[in-house]
Amino acid sequence: MSTADTLSTALADLEALETSGKAAFGQAQTGDAVEAARIEFLGLKQGRVKSAQERLKSLESGAKREYGQRFNAVKQALEVAWNDAKTRVERPASVAAGIDVTLPGQKPRLGHRHPLTQTADELIDLFGRFGFAVARGPEVEDVRHNFEALNIPLSHPARDPLDNFYLPGGTMLRSQTSTVQIRVMENQPPPVRVIAIGRVYRPDTVDATHSFMFHQIEGLMVDKGVTMADLKTVLRLFAESYLGKDVQIRFRPSFFPFTEPSVEVDMLWHGGDRWVEMGGAGMVDPNVFRAVGYDPEEVTGFAFGLGIERLCMRRHGIDDIRLLYQNDSRFLSQF
Ligand code: PHE
Questions:
Q1: Residue ranges covered by each domain of the chain
Q2: Which of 226, 258, 302 to mutate to test ligand 1, by most ligand atoms within 8 A of the CB atom?
Q3: What percent of the chain has pLDDT over 70?
Q4: Pocket test for ligand 1, best of 150, 152, 176 (most atoms within 8 A of CB)
Q5: What pTM value is reported for the model?
Q6: Residue 277 has pLDDT above 50, yes or no
Q7: 304 CA → ligand 1 middle, Å
Q8: What's phi and psi for 25, nearest 5 deg?
């Protein structure tokens, strides 16, 4: 017989060995059956793989190399089949039934609150701890609450139609949450300690830090003997609590018709290279007290109005206000 014949027969036998071994492991349904197949094929003394290995000796030296390589592959394949069979029969019945309780579950996709809502909720919580209750007012306001009672006369440039969204019948989309100060004081005697959070509207050109609609938090505290020192303390405490101990804020003298004296409050922006206005504040003007029937000789108070978007942006390192309105879930899912 030629060498080629012997080699090809031996290779064909290897092929058959692989096929029947895989079938035996594949069909085994119990640990005992798997073990029986292991002994038959991979048994160290009389296993069929062992015999196939011994056949190597009987081959011509030129054929040994090819047979050896093929033998190694078959042996490896059967070891894998053995392992697979072991894992399969060891699995619990639930798995055999198609339920693999060890797989990670499918998480239901849950939404979450918008970063601005989260900010608003945190502010309510924070000022709540400073003793401030929550007040509300309408977004469609009358001119009295948006301007007149706030000591902003008809001649004042803030009332310019180009700077406001006027509606029919002496109403408008409120341009500031200071309207709520008036509503609260009209409805309750002093002392007052409230915040109001909500949307305000101004015909501003949209850019990275401006929008025609944004949110403000208004604060109002009225009592006997409230001073500017109280105002500065509350705003500093607030900034440190919400933005972190290392935040820097500064007060600049300013003017609002409804506060005297007035300040603008800036915060050092993330990155630390520029100051950004956080909002306005001041001591409630006596004319405002008179407009709501409070006695300016009896009580004093402070008020502030801060931009919620900018607080949220500073807190999270966001640089473009428009991201907060685009509802891109890739952006929103980060909060
Ligand atoms: N209402 C002012 C604004 O919109 C902010 C402010 C509120 C200033 C309260 C002083 C007191 O800019």
A1: 3-90, 115-332
A2: 258
A3: 98
A4: 176
A5: 0.70
A6: yes
A7: 6
A8: -65, -40
* 71 CB neighbour count, 10 Å cutoff: 20
The fold of 115-332 is BirA Bifunctional Protein; domain 2 (3.30.930)
CA of 335 to the centre of ligand 1 (A): 28
pLDDT at 118 over 60: yes
Residue 225 reports pLDDT greater than 70: yes
Q: How confident is the model over 183-205, as pLDDT tens digits?
A: 999 999 999 999 999 999 999 99
Does 180 sit in the ligand 1 pocket, CB within 6 Å? no
Q: Is 305 in the pocket of ligand 1 (CB under 6 A)?
A: yes
Residue 81, strand partner residues = none
> b/e map of 307-322 (b: 16 or more CB within 10 Å)?
bbbbbbbbbeebeebe
Tens digits of residue pLDDT in 152-161: 999 999 999 9
Whether residue 179 has its Cβ less than 6 Å from ligand 1? no
Centre of ligand 1 from the C-alpha of residue 216, in Å? 9
> What's the CA gap between 151 and 292, in Å, rounded?
11
